[in-house]
Amino acid sequence: MTNKVMCLAVPVRVISKEGDAAETEIAGVRRLVSIALTPEVKVGDYVLLHTGYAIGIVDEAEAKETLKLLEEIVSLSEAHR
Amino acid sequence: MKLIDEYQNSALARKLAIRIANRSAKPIRLMEFCGGHTHAIMRYGIRQLLPETVEMRAGPGCPVCVTATADLDKAIAMAHLAGVIITTFGDMMRVPGSHSSLQQTRAEGADIRVIYSAMDAVEIARSNPQKSVILIGIGFETTAPTIAASTIKAQKEGIENFYVLSLLKLSPPVMKAILELGEVRLDGIICPGHVSVIIGSYPYEFIPKNHNVGCVISGFEPLDILLCIDRLVEQIESGQPKVEIAYRRGVKPEGNEKALELMGEVFEIAQANWRGIGVVPQSGLRVSQKYEHFDADNLFRLNLKPTGEPKGCRCGEILRGIATPPECGLFGKVCTPEKPIGPCMVSSEGACAAYYKYGGISYE
Ligand code: SF4
What we know:
A: alpha+beta; B: alpha/beta; Rossmann fold; globular; binds iron/sulfur cluster
């Protein structure tokens, strides 16, 4: 995982944490990241990884909601045609 | 990959595009602020999916591209100082300064190292106590807190040979500058997703309020971007511009308070020099007084020659949203990713690089 795109952040799952570091995993790749910016993160959470730091915690409930919303608005506009 | 693949469903994307086409009546122009969005829009062929009524323009959200030549020259000059190690994010290496690039300067013998994280620069400082290690701090609000956290770490661990040259920039103030310049009429802004993870949605409120332009914060997968465009079309058609978050899994209205706190601890708001735009008040971050012993700008004084811009390069206009890459006479002929003339062709987030790499590809 290189950092070709500066403002890129990718979701990775936290598998353990200690102090301000956490071990994360995505598609079999493990990486130690800093959680200095997301100290409240819990094991099992997905975080957005940017240049070695977890900059935010992914809200999985909202992730599902957005997918539901997408399905809904698409089927709504199909019904209207 | 979880939380990525679901947002790349191309059947759903096509349906969403049809919905947008059905609802978009008047011609509109949207600016994607963030270079990461330009990259994704070109990569997934989103422009080709959109109806003719929706025009997309790249904006100034590419950290490498907006770095002023004068600031790059300063970084290069620092690399020439004795006993200095320069650490930088990769894309910066190949950007042509007035007289040279960091890559050329390294070839000439300067110690310049590409890092993945600001933390790496602190580690290099720790293992090279005889040297002064300067981090070229480029980036927006996404990156600023990571540099702040690294600086605080260096402070706590008593690492005294680590310095930051802060070229950090802030997104909402430059949006304001572009809207006030008024060179390009915009109906909506696709607001940067990862900047907004940090700053939240409130700092964009002035845009619909004072400029009557809609703002929707977007993620980076094709469905995220199409959802964002759908929301913007809706706002514009109903004549009710506002700030919306279409990237709810990542962005909270209040942002990341811890990150904002650390950023505010190490940095203070200052003017910044933007390529193509010039000096914009309150649009950047400089090292705060409390951390001044980390401030490379303050500690390494330099005599610099006046700067020159690459001849014929229209990066500045592209960053202001008044030109598109193919309008540059050098695009694809003289200027290519292999032999870039300007930063917009160097950085993978640069509009010229994205157009060159993905121009004409459609989303199948
Ligand atoms: S194509 Fe090259 S020369 Fe033209 S604006 Fe882009 S970076 Fe500059």
